[in-house]
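Hey, quick one: can you model this chain's 3D structure?
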Amino acid sequence: MTPAIQEHVLKKEISKTLPVASWGMFDAWGASNIHPELTKDEVQKLSPSAVKIPFTEEERSHISHETDILKVFDKQMKFVSSYFLGYPINLNYDHQELFDFMKYSINNCGDPFATSIAGIHSRQFECSVLDFFSKLWNIPKDDYWGYVTSGGTEGNLHGILLARECHPDGILYCSEESHYSIFKAGRYFRMDTKTIPTLPMGEINYNLLEKELTNNLDRHAIISVNIGTTVKGAVDNLDRIIQVLKKVGLPRERFHIHCDGALLAMMIPFMDFAPQISFEKPIDSIAVSGHKMLGCPMPCGVTICRKQHVKNLEQRVDYINCMDTTITGSRNGQAALYLWYSLRKKGIAGIKQEVM
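Sure thing. Here's the predicted structure for all 356 residues.
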């Protein structure tokens, strides 16, 4: 059987057994139905030559109109969404009420808790989202800081940057199944990184972590804890890692824990009998994706940390009349609005139902 035939058979089987997208959740865009693929003529309308941007009217006369191209692109999105499997993303959302706000250039530049000269922002919605997550992860409002990111990667970069600024000579410890953004952070910030092998189910090997920590007791420890690895969905046992740190004799001021909770940190608080991820434990930051469990039309996320840590990053920028504390400068104010809307519409009961 050729690969093409195998793919065709697979699609037919999927259409019989899984007439829904991703996690099996129905959505507002019709991805819960199987849509036809593009014809050859339609495929051509999305080719590089068809979607190129013309420099002259002569060039424009030989290409399709934008409206026709977008109609085909919409059909393609429906087709690929109806067969979309394997990436942890929730398509169960309907944001039509927010469409009118797409005409505004909403920019949450700078610190979300500070005023800015930019009047077109959604800071009040962003802060509401941050308050929700601070409550979800049990950190008092006056003790936390955070912002709406462009996704889990940015949240991880920010969390590891905070750790490096707090512990300049610290060693970054992470499992071999950590997200690539953790290793990227180690490279970007020129950190000494120790990769720890994993157990068969994907958790970090606690005995090997203990051995590495013991061999480097003269250095501070920065530990990235996986709350759901990319491939296996493995959750590192936070309580056991804390026990290891106590066993080797590292006091609280000499270690820093970042939790990469891209998917599961949004789910675990709603699961019965699940080990809780909480700032009541000696952790320092959590990053989560917004477009995965919660569902959002653009990649986004949230990072929360202990407020005292961000002081090490603050720099005053006069021409925006604000503190620079984030990874990016300009930030997507639309993402904050969409996250707020999803949380408000679904509510605690709705989120828990989706988790179950």
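One thing worth noting: Residues 156 and 287 are 6 Å apart (CA to CA).
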